[in-house]
């Protein structure tokens, strides 16, 4: 039992006197008295019996209501002076409402000896009867609030909902809500909240409203109460020689205190504390509860977590208040951390999520988590399961609230530290590939400790430490770093170089190193991608690269093909070497295995204009196997007669000859195309007697091909006379169209030239009529020198230049 430690004004009665005391806690401890009492006033009620009930109404009224010898009198609480003309007789008991009405007045309900229940309104000077209800039995206890009146006789509880608009002599009756069958049980009740009450029953406390309904189960008492009073959230119960304290939150007995001859319990409202005034025959005690924070601390220390949370939430009536109340938030945080440490991580996460707990608070709870850049120690199998449970919960919480937490600098580093213990190496690498740029480079030691060398390289790469990145990968390839199954392969080095613009000498050294590791394809890709120009200052010049690739013939061929067809390198050395490589491959293989390479060679000989023709021709002429290639080379030297002679007379490949004619005609003028076509036409006519049918078909196809240009007048003169007219139908139609087109084109060109000449003559005439002054101060726009001759050139914008400057 604790005693109240603040100054408190009380009014206490002694027989027919009312005394006013100020109480103050003793500064010197005493075994018998903890308070000093100083009488500040007294008043005699003039009654024959002692005071039965006294009620202090402060607020705006400042009144003391007394009941003595069935007489109610009202005094001023400041000076204990009687309020004149306010007395009520034949009163058994009374109760005062907790709600003040307008005009500084308050309602009071009184029970009379005439079995009446009367409701009065008291103001500063008057007391007025506003309602009266008849009852069957005398009322011994009354409770009143803004919802109505609860009263009880010795065996029955009644309820009345006040209707202040009804007639003062109301015919309304009290509603019976509960009846005691055992006369030995003392009828008593207390107010839980306005409109909700607890009634004393046979070893139970019955919760009810004025309507007689309740959604709450009864409280089971250990011993039948003599009286009780509610002080949130506890029920103070008076039994024989003891005071029992029940929690109204879970209906459980929380404390027992021995106290003999206890007579009354009075609730004294105080800020932040619950205080009871308890008197025995010879002593007055103050029963003061621990603060709610102390109560919660005790509950948490004994692992009564739900009870602690319920106690904290009981102070807030609305859900909105519970979301912001500091006591509830701190209690949930403490419960969550306790549950987290007890491995009840699911409940802990729900609480963390409710209060938006910062993830740093969780990190502190996990052993060895901090500092983040320190490696995990060796953890035995018994503890590892706990760590896995903690860290999985931590990661789930972090991921769920990633939008909120990801802006913090150590968010991704914290996840990495957790992943190192609970995730697979592949998942860690995926995590680093996405988020390494948000993690400090200092964490590379942590990755090295876990033999995640590839992960360390990714971290270096994210911070543009390119040399360290490549160095780690090279050591993995060379087996200097082992046991890293996350390394994707040497190709990632080439990909890394190709995707970035780094120091060119360093890039060249990496490509050279890849070549040494027999990664020819990767090296060639780098040589091609990093090529800029053919200057001697560029390390990726084709001459340097070709010398480097000579010991690697396949890589050299691939490089030259890419240099020619992708980089469009037109140097004769590159093209000639590529031709010689094709020839070497063809010679080294059997005829059946070199068709693809020979096709590539022929196509290259046709399209390329940069190889050394004489050098290639000299080599090809050393064998009779390359007759078609010889023909292509003659065509490159504009020796069309010899080229078509080889194709038609020696190889007898008439279709290829026609196709080669079209290839030679590309990008040439009309006259040059006609020359090529007529050479082939002459060769076909010369060989007509050897292969009349085949050449006739080839000639007809050639003459009917719109891609080949002919002088059809000359062609018609030289066609064999024995050809039927029907076979020449297509040729004649094309000849007519071509001649008509050429004639119209010539006339149109002549007309356009004539029109242009007329415009120029008009412009010249205008220029001749315009006067242009040239003097020694005027300067040439081109050379900025003076004019010393009378002739000059005038541009369209009017500027003048020397004649020799205009040329």
Question: Main attributes?
Answer:
807 residues; alpha+beta; 4-stranded antiparallel sheet; 21% strand; elongated; disordered N terminus
As laid out across the biggest beta sheet, the strand order is 4-5-6-7
Counting DSSP H or I runs of 4 or more residues, the number of helices is 29
Structural class call reads: alpha+beta
Please count the beta strands (DSSP E, at least 2 residues each). Answer: 28
Q: Using only CA atoms, what is the Rg?
A: 57 Å
The coarse silhouette is elongated
- Quote the average pLDDT: 86
For the largest beta-sheet, the strand count, sense and barrel status come to:
4 strands, antiparallel
Ends apart, CA distance between termini:
120 Å
Helix content: 40-55%
Q: What fraction of residues sit in β-strands?
A: 15-25%
Residue windows where pLDDT falls under 50 for at least 5 positions? 1-13
Write up what this structure looks like.
Helices cover 42% and strands 21% of the residues. By secondary structure, it is of the alpha+beta class. Among the domains are: 1-89, no CATH class; 570-637, no CATH class. The strands form eight sheets. It has a four-stranded antiparallel β-sheet, with no helix packed on it. It has a four-stranded antiparallel β-sheet with strand order 8-9-10-11, with no helix packed on it. The N and C termini lie far apart (120 Å). The model is unreliable at 1-13 (pLDDT under 50). It is found in: Cytoplasm. Its main location: cytoplasm. This is CNH domain-containing protein.
């Amino acid at each position: 039992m604790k005693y109240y430690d603040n100054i408190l004004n009380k009014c206490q009665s002694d027989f027919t006197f009312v005394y006013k005391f100020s109480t103050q806690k003793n500064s010197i401890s005493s075994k018998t008295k903890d308070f000093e009492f100083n009488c500040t006033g007294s008043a005699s009620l003039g009654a024959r019996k002692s005071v039965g009930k006294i009620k202090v109404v402060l607020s705006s009224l400042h009144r003391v209501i007394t009941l003595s010898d069935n007489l109610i009198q009202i005094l001023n609480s400041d000076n204990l002076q009687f309020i004149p003309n306010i007395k009520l007789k034949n009163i058994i008991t009374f109760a005062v409402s907790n709600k003040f009405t307008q005009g500084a007045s308050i309602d009071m309900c009184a029970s009379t000896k005439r079995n009446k229940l009367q409701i009065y309104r008291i103001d500063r000077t008057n007391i007025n009867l506003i309602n009266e209800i008849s009852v069957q039995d005398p009322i011994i206890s009354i409770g009143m609030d803004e919802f109505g009146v609860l009263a009880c006789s010795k065996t029955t509880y009644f309820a009345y909902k006040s209707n202040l608009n009804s007639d003062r002599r109301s015919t309304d009756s009290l509603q019976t809500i509960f009846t005691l069958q055992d006369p030995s049980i003392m009828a008593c009740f207390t107010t839980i909240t306005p409109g909700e009450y607890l009634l004393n029953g046979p070893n139970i406390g019955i919760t009810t409203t004025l309507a007689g309904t309740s959604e709450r189960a009864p409280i089971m008492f250990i011993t039948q109460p003599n009286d009780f009073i509610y002080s949130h959230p506890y029920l103070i119960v008076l039994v024989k020689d003891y005071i029992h304290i029940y929690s109204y939150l879970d209906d459980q007995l929380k404390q027992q205190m021995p106290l003999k001859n206890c007579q009354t319990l009075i609730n004294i409202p105080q800020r932040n504390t619950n205080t009871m005034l308890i008197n025995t025959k010879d002593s007055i005690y103050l029963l003061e509860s621990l603060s709610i924070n102390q109560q919660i601390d005790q509950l948490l220390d004994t692992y009564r977590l739900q009870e602690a949370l319920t106690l904290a939430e009981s102070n807030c009536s609305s859900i909105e208040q519970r979301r912001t109340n500091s006591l509830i938030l701190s209690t949930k945080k403490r419960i969550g951390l306790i549950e987290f440490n007890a491995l009840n991580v699911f409940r802990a996460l729900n609480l963390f999520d409710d209060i938006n707990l910062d993830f740093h608070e969780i990190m502190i709870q996990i052993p060895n988590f901090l500092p983040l850049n320190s490696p995990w120690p060796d953890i035995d199998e018994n503890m590892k399961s706990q760590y896995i449970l903690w860290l999985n919960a931590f990661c789930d919480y972090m991921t769920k609230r990633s939008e909120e937490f990801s802006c913090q600098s150590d968010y991704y580093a914290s996840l990495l530290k957790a992943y190192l213990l609970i995730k697979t190496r592949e998942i860690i690498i995926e995590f680093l590939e996405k988020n390494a740029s948000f993690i400090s480079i200092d964490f590379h030691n942590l990755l090295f400790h876990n033999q995640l060398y590839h992960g360390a390289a990714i971290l270096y790469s994210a911070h543009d430490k390119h040399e360290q990145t490549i160095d780690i990968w090279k050591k993995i390839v060379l087996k200097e770093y082992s046991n890293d199954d996350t390394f994707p392969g040497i190709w990632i080095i080439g990909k890394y170089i190709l995707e970035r613009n780094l120091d060119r000498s360093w890039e060249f050294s990496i490509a050279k190193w890849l070549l040494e590791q027999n990664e020819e394809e990767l090296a060639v890709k780098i040589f091609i991608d990093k090529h800029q120009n053919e200057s001697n200052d560029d390390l990726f010049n084709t001459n340097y690269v070709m010398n480097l690739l000579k010991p690697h013939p396949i890589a050299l061929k691939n490089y030259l093909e890419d240099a020619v067809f992708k980089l469009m390198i037109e140097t004769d050395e590159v093209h000639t070497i590529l031709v010689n490589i094709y020839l070497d491959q063809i010679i080294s293989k059997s005829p059946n295995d070199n068709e693809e390479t020979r096709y590539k060679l022929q196509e290259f000989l046709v399209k390329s204009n940069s190889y050394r023709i004489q050098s290639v021709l000299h080599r090809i002429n050393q064998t009779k196997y390359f007759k078609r290639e010889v023909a292509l080379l003659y065509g490159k030297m504009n020796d069309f007669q010899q080229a078509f002679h080889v194709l038609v007379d020696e190889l007898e490949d008439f279709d290829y000859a026609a196709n080669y004619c079209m290839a030679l005609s590309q990008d040439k003028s009309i006259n040059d195309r006609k020359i090529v076509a007529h050479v082939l036409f002459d060769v076909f006519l010369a060989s007509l007697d050897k292969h009349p049918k085949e050449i006739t078909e080839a000639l007809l196809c050639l003459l009917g091909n719109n891609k080949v240009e002919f002088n059809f007048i000359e062609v018609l003169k030289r066609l064999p006379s024995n050809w039927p007219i029907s076979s020449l139908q297509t040729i004649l139609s094309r000849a007519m169209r071509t001649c008509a087109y050429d004639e119209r084109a010539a006339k149109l060109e002549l007309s356009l030239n004539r029109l242009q000449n007329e415009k120029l003559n008009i412009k010249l005439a205008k220029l001749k009529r315009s006067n242009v002054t040239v003097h020694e101060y005027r300067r040439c726009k081109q050379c900025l020198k003076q004019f010393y001759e009378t002739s000059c050139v005038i541009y369209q914008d009017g500027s003048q230049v020397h004649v020799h400057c205009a040329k």
